[in-house]
Amino acid sequence: MALMITEECISCDVCVPECPNEAISQGDDIYVVDPARCTECVGHFDEAQCIQSCPVDCIVHDPAHVESRDELHAKYERTRA
Q1: Average pLDDT taken over every residue of the chain
Q2: 14, CA 20 to 30 Å: which among 6, 27, 50, 69?
Q3: What total number of domains does the chain contain?
């Protein structure tokens, strides 16, 4: 499952450098996660680094992009190529 950033985002920029897949970028009002690039850090870390670093806990699982751990790992493999 890819992650998403909720409206509680304060645009502090802390999550951006933490993403090993460069899936987080500035949106119109808040930061956004590109679900095509987000692997929840599978293949890089045991836990999603953006969630760990977010000071307002506004990064959550995106119910519109449900993926298994195996699917996330396959996405990780594709992004490395």
Answers
A1: 95
A2: 69
A3: 1
